[in-house]
Design a protein that fits this description.
alpha/beta, two-stranded antiparallel sheet, Rossmann fold, 40% helix, 6-stranded parallel sheet, 8 strands
């Protein structure tokens, strides 16, 4: 077994393409709670937290933000997630990593409830030893660095990998002394993603196989 036994994954833009379903949900929300200006859906960073996205959309209007958060949650949390898809190779390679003994984790800016629902609906929930989300601790939003450090502390991770599609993911991995792997097929622009100099860069999920199992 490779010494680096733990792999921490981001979710949106790394394991799943949730963008179509999220856009559909936002459109429904914005029809009910109209933003002050037109929305450029392609400019939204869908790997960011719900709060951060809505703060930008509603220009930090707390009243509109809270109403939009409630409506978004009502719609999105009760989805069947048919339009949220695992990226090519994710299902098979996650099962392979798990089978050979790697300990898998999730650290995501997504909220806990939809995260668990999506992992279960896609048949990969049981593969993960820990799932840490932005809202895991009530009234204490966690940054990606907080999430990764929490996993490393609770699971006694001294060596491992951090895999993600954002500069936040890469920095969180660096902060916890993990081998960082940036995925270029996700939601963040390439120049932003590469800003923190990840150890490895991949264009497809299956490329992890040659890095992690070498």
């Amino acid at each position: 077994m490779n010494q680096k036994q733990h792999i921490i994954f981001d979710l949106d833009g790394t394991l799943i393409d949730s963008k179509p379903e999220i856009i559909s949900t936002y459109k429904k929300v914005f029809e009910e709670i109209v933003p002050p200006s037109e929305i450029e859906y392609e400019e939204i960073n869908y790997g960011n937290t719900l709060t951060a996205i809505l703060e930008k959309v509603y220009n930090h209007n707390s009243n509109l933000i809270e109403k939009a958060k409630v409506l978004f949650s009502e719609i999105y949390d009760h989805s069947n997630y048919d339009h949220t898809l695992l990226y090519s190779g994710v299902f098979d390679f996650l099962h392979q990593f798990h089978k050979v003994g790697f300990i898998l984790h999730i650290a995501t800016n997504k909220r806990l409830n939809p995260t668990l629902n999506i992992l279960k609906s896609k048949g990969i929930f049981d593969l993960f030893t820990s799932v840490v989300t932005h809202d895991l601790i009530i009234d204490k939003p966690l940054s990606k660095t907080d999430m990764v450090k929490l996993i490393c502390q609770e699971q006694s991770v001294s060596k491992g990998f951090m895999v993600g599609d954002s500069s936040q993911d890469i920095q969180a991995g660096i902060d916890s002394n993990l081998v960082t792997i940036a995925v270029l097929y996700g939601y963040e622009k390439k120049e932003e993603l590469l800003r923190n100099n990840p150890k490895f860069v991949i264009n497809q999920f299956k490329e992890l196989n040659t890095i992690i199992l070498k």
